[in-house]
## 1
Amino acid sequence: MERGLRAASAAIVCATTIGLSATQTAPQNPGQASTARKYVVIGCISREERSTPSRGNAAPAGPTFTVTDTRGDSPATYRLGGDAEQLGLHVGHTVEISGPITTPPGARGGGNAGPAVPTLTVQSLTYISTTCPKK
């Protein structure tokens, strides 16, 4: 009886160990892991028309879309990277956007609207409201 109980206990421990190792999602080689972190921004989308030509092009540049997140102590503004047609549908709407944020070289922290505004690459967009909150 005791021998059967030990065998059953050993089988449970073995099955648990195999199950745990199968559920691990961390890569075996950390050098290949993606370093891009996903951020979530909730805010209002706006469009900025640029009338100056972009680098190397004689044609006027297309619109730039930004999202302003007012949840913190000071508002943070991010330039949006993504499908301009889809982003244009949500101008003036409150949305939740997630994706990686890239900061241009020489940019200092904060969400100002200067030339060094961080870019949020849109990986997912969730519609929240047809309006933006008034301050």
## 2
Amino acid sequence: MSDTKPVLSVRSLKKYFPIRTGVFSRTVGHVKAVDDVSFDIVPGETFALVGESGCGKSTTGRTILRLQGATGGEVTFQGEDVFSASGERMRKLRKDMQIVFQDPYSALNPRMRVGTAIREILSVHGVAHGQEAQERAEEVLVRCGLERYHATRYPHEFSGGQRQRVVIARALALDPKFIVADEPISALDVSIQSQVINLLEDLQDEFELTYLFISHDLSVVKHMADRVGVMYLGKLVEVADKADFYREPLHPYSQALLSAIPVNDPTEKKQRIILKGDVPSPANPPSGCPFHTRCPHAMPVCKTVVPKLKKTDVGREVACHLVHPPEEEVPA
């Protein structure tokens, strides 16, 4: 996969939200939701972003698609700079770049029948109109496990799993090449989660889709992903192939996350790594390594020097002084 040209390249992506106060709304600081994130995704791959809630996973996905403006960095999709694309060019790019939102109910217009919602997308992009658009809307609903008559129903008439299938169908309507799946099963019952995951995998094989899969559930990621990127406080701290990551995570934060995965066998002994303290505020991140305030292996250098995300001898990327000696690093 590494020899294949990336379909998506993210370089030094930053997204800061201003903190304003006072009558004149003066900016007194920034929430660094995404801070210098870089990765590539090759065609047909599922790249998973994992981490605790609030680490910047969803913001990364939305910023890549320009659903919100970036503070810095660049995103290249199929060789084209997404952030510098004009309005008309961005409209064409959106046909190939879609998103499945976390909450399927809020993602749908409650006053619009789901068939109408899909037809509207087809019409706006000039793909199909009238009866042809209706036929395509019904066909994509059927492909996502629903029935043709479901096109006449409103969102509140569906179960949570069915609504998520509608959202997936809407994303597929334009025949995209890349989909951001933003925690697509977190709002669903456990019994429904496996059905949606299997659907996403089947659709990936059938339509040759590429996924950015965002999740905090490492059990699901193990089943779904090809590569894994671990985020902490807006930064990537480890990137590795799935097999390497689950066999031997290198970053202490990755080790703690994996130790929290429940095991099926109640007799199996598993050592849980309990992290001390709370997650620092992204509005006032700690100096040096952002994880040093909770890391069980923190060294004095971790408090002052920011570790860079660099490749190891075996090709994995890790941002940790335990893995990479800090001689070449610079103070924060």
## 3
Amino acid sequence: MLILYNFILDNLIKIRYTTTCKAKTFTGGVYMLREDSGDTKLDEFVRLSVLYDFYGELLNDRKKQIFEDYFLNDFSLSEIANELGISRQGVHDIVKRTSKELWDYEERLSLVKKFTEVKEKVGNIKKYCNEVKKSLDFTKIQAIETLADDILKEL
């Protein structure tokens, strides 16, 4: 099965990217989500996981530990609070501040947006190459050159 990165396949189904954490090693995963599912909490979790993959190293160690425990290791606020010797509310505040900080990084740097756009263009190049192989269509070759130029300009 061909899987694209965070794109709408049709009007109802999207492909989403998420991460998991096992012994401090992050791996990517993909799952499909129906557009009409209304699962905004899951959407938010996925978005924050992707933002963490891009900007996590910009956080201090304490924020990274709490974010990983809460979002990636699925610990409760109480479990994290007991482990760190702080209040549950303190953990909640750190999670909220860290989430806002990740969103702020994306707003300023737009790395996730740029990555998604480049990935889409490369996918189109691959599609056009396959079409050109089947029938020599010079308009497709021009489209490939244009996409390649766009990617090079962005990099």
